[in-house]
Amino acid sequence: MSKQTVLREFLKRMPDFVYEYIDVAYRGDSINTQIGYSIDIKTFFDYLRIEKFPDIDSNEKLKPEHINQVTLLDLNKFQSYLKEYTVERTSITGKKYSITVTNDSSGINRKLSGIRGLFQYLYKNDLISENVTDKLDFKKLHQKMKRPLTTFETAQLLDVIYEGEKYFTGRDLAEYENKKLRDIALFVAYLGTGCRVSELVNLDIDDVDFETSSFIVTRKGGDEQEIFMPVQVENELYTYMEERLKNEAAKDKKALFLNRNGTRLSPQAVELALKKYCAAIGITDPDKCKPHALRRTFACNMIADGVDIKMVAELMGHKNIEVTHKYYAQYSSQKRREVMQNLDVLKLPD
Length: 350
What we know:
By secondary structure, the protein is mostly helical. It has two domains: about 5-135, no CATH class; about 150-335, Intergrase catalytic core (hpI Integrase, Chain A, Orthogonal Bundle), CATH 1.10.443. Helix content is about 55%, strand content about 5%. The protein has 14 helices and five strands. It has a three-stranded antiparallel β-sheet with strand order 3-4-5, with no helix packed on it. A two-stranded antiparallel sheet has the order 1-2. A hairpin with a 5-residue loop joins β4 and β5 (about 225-230). α1 packs parallel to α3 (about 30-50). The termini are far apart. The model has no long low-confidence stretch (mean pLDDT about 85).
């Protein structure tokens, strides 16, 4: 059973407004993201039926008017509940069993984020009279700073992607050669535009326009945005497109980036490919081996080149500029290191 089918079957057991919310809010995101937020909403609904609406025997029967009755106290209690709770599962043999679920602050915030998004959707569509989640305090997190690729690491990564014959042998070499043009186009587009991995893999052939040197992506929330291509990105996409259009065995006729089976490439496959390239050149930092590292590198390069942070936010598709400021902090860290490395401690004043 495909993940898309799993999501559809899951949402059939939820109210219609949840299906509509997931479709609108997470259109363009990976199927795993959509399933994850759907599960978070189910957890919330299960809690509401036990604690607030015991007469309602299934999540399908919950309506916006029930959500409208949720108070800040209910949400605070749910936040405490998320630290540790028990859920009932059924094995493939039909036997029921219980498991205990625990969440750290990051996990709690992610679940609350999906709930807040649902409330915002219902409020904007006049299905509830107040968005009570605006009053909810999220858990404070002490986030680890994730670094972009250095200039040297970026050059190494591009070398293995362009010249994989120097790095791979046997079956790995054959696999590399089969997907070489695709991966060059994909990862150069990633480094050159800062798009999300979900936005790139969801590109269709018709989304790319070489006359305007741009392509259309669907951002988080469903908004479309025209992305203008640097010359290197346009050249590599054009080269790959020539091969792609000759692929008569493609099962997915619309998708731009295909896997070995001829269907649309998944975000998970992109991550696996990047990890393989990183392993070949000795990049071991797990944060730098994930596709988002390329997006982070793009943002830091833009800031280093003097591009205004508001423009960077627009290029990245950030609706909240505070998200972009995180990349500025990472760039600032690099500049502080350069200043300190060039400091001559023993130099005497004139």
